[in-house]
Amino acid sequence: MEDEVSKHVFEQFKSAFQATPIFWTPNWNKPFLVYCDAFGEVMGNTLSQSDEIGHDHPIHFASK
């Protein structure tokens, strides 16, 4: 039973990634948003842009 639930959840997760684009193509006429976070020796950042209704969409991720 648990194995079937896991398979179902995995298939839903896989479908969500295939149906929705992960990265957006940058629109050079709109402002960019830069998010950065660091802790100890770890750093990560995201370059994003907002759509017409204010949702942020990633254009690029970086981490070190």
- List the secondary-structure elements in sequence, H or E: HEEE
Mean pLDDT reading: 88
With helices defined by DSSP (H or I, 4 residues minimum), what is the helix count? Answer: 1
Strand residue content: 35-45%
The residue ranges in which pLDDT falls below 50 over 5 or more consecutive positions are none
Question: Rg to the nearest angstrom?
Answer: 16 Å
Instruction: Compute the separation of the termini in Å.
Output: 40 Å
Instruction: Please give the number of β-strands.
Output: 3
Descriptive keywords:
64 residues, alpha+beta, 3-stranded antiparallel sheet, 3 strands
Structural overview:
By secondary structure, the protein is of the alpha+beta class. It has a domain at 22-64. Helices cover 28% and strands 38% of the residues. The protein has one helix at residues 2-19, and strands spanning 33-39, 42-50, 56-63.
Indicate the topology:
Elements: H1 2-19, E1 33-39, E2 42-50, E3 56-63
Antiparallel strand pairs: 1-2, 2-3
